[in-house]
Amino acid sequence: MSQIQLQNIVKKYGDGFPAVNDVSLDIADGEFMIFVGPSGCGKSTLLRMIVGLEDITSGEMLIDGRMVNDLAPRDRNLAMVFQNYALYPHLTVFENIAFPLRLEKGKHSEEEIRGKVQAASSMLELDEHLERKPGNLSGGQRQRVAMGRAIVRDADAFLFDEPLSNLDAKLRGQMRTEIARMQRRMGITTVYVTHDQTEAMTLGDRVAVLKKGILQQVASPRELYEQP
Ligand code: ADP
Ligand code: ADP
Fold this sequence. Notes:
4-stranded antiparallel β-sheet; ATP binding; alpha/beta; Putative sugar ABC transporter ATP-binding protein; 10 strands; binds adenosine-5'-diphosphate; 25% strand; 6-stranded mixed β-sheet
């Protein structure tokens, strides 16, 4: 669990207009926060700065009150799910999900790894597919494996970058429900980037609306819905 605070965050690529322009936002412990806005508004850049994949030009990023601007991604204990899944094609579903645990060398026994992978895969209804390779799975199943890999570790927060945009409409609806359910069950701080209005209005506790790198407003879906 984690509180994430963005204080006057700016990101400039080269000397152009800032991709993220003075964004301040407090994400509470256990909160489900959505970043929404059109392509190019700076959503992914913000998310990547939270994870540590992108340098911050100015401003401060705090996780549980600690400044993390210069902390490497692996030292932040956050779990990211990408749009393109980034699964290992030569590994089975089991080994894809187990991968983050194996990276923490010597920390988990084989039995522990088996237990954690089982727990994650049963929550995501992947039990029957553990010995298959990603190439033989449907888009929805692949997305579940990517989520399994994120939840298998005791991460402090989940970060999703447009995780459903490669799925068809039906699966998108189904996965939306699953993500919402999983987040409530685990009560883990979640930041979710999307350009999809339906996802923005149904998934989160609050929605942060971005436009050209500027934070326009932060409100609950209900408040946004009731706006004139
Ligand atoms: P979004 O996720 O909302 O589509 P991005 O964060 O990807 O927006 O991009 C915000 C802006 O920053 C865009 O103008 C984009 O072209 C630019 N940008 C993103 N990544 C880079 C990069 N690595 N180098 C230069 N410009 C970038
Ligand atoms: P998104 O799906 O968030 O809009 P894109 O598909 O636009 O992302 O960008 C994918 C990758 O390309 C990202 O790593 C991003 O940082 C990089 N990128 C985006 N815009 C630019 C740019 N103008 N110059 C260089 N790299 C960019």
